[in-house]
Amino acid sequence: MKLNSIGIKIFKKSKRVGRGIGSGKGKTAGRGVKGQKARSGVAVKSFEGGQMPLYRRLPKRGFNAIRNRANNLVINLRDISNLIDKKKINISEKVDLSSLLFPKDKTNSKYVKVKILGTGEIKHKVNLLAHSFSQSAKSKIENLGGSIEIVK
């Protein structure tokens, strides 16, 4: 980008290809002569002329943790408190995985375990049944007089 004599920006115009031999980019428009890349509509990204491409020749490294990951339902105390306020959870009985899921999810649940985290506040005395608890969740529940039970 250049500035002219009075300080206005001057943009360099791009070369118009395929506009006759006088333009310097006429006839083949800078594409060479014949061949696959001279044709229209060709995208040759990693094609190596039939040879096995580099990305398939190299070995795969590492592992995919998703394949072996257990499906854990991670739920915060603030979410449990919201469910209690909306009367979706009955606090007179123990709260477990099936009561944390909505009725449509109970039959075809992908979750195997439940972990309770301590984010947010809980105002109700509640009895929770889960596979694991964070330290903050344990202390918040027990300070209100609630109980926790760990499922093995």
Give a brief outline of the structure.
With about 150 residues, the chain is an alpha/beta fold.
Give the radius of gyration. 33 Å
**Helical proportion?**
10-25%
The run of helices and strands is EEHEHHHEEEHE
Sheet having the most strands: 3 strands, parallel
Summing up helix and strand content along with how strands pair, one would put the structural category as alpha/beta
How would you describe the overall organization of this protein?
The chain has two domains: 1-61, no CATH class; 72-150, Ribosomal Protein L15, Chain: K, domain 2, CATH 3.100.10. With 152 residues, the chain is of the alpha/beta class. It is elongated. Helix content is 20%, strand content 16%. The strands form three sheets. Strands 3-4-6 form a three-stranded parallel sheet. It has helices spanning 54-57, 77-85, 97-100, 103-107, 135-143, and strands at 2-3, 9-10, 72-76, 113-117, 127-130, 132-133, 147-150.
Topology:
Elements: E1 2-3, E2 9-10, H1 54-57, E3 72-76, H2 77-85, H3 97-100, H4 103-107, E4 113-117, E5 127-130, E6 132-133, H5 135-143, E7 147-150
Parallel strand pairs: 3-4, 4-6, 5-7
Antiparallel strand pairs: 1-2
Keywords for this entry:
single chain; 5 helices; alpha/beta; 7 strands; 152 residues; 2 domains; Ribosomal Protein L15, Chain: K, domain 2; three-stranded parallel β-sheet; two-stranded antiparallel ribbon
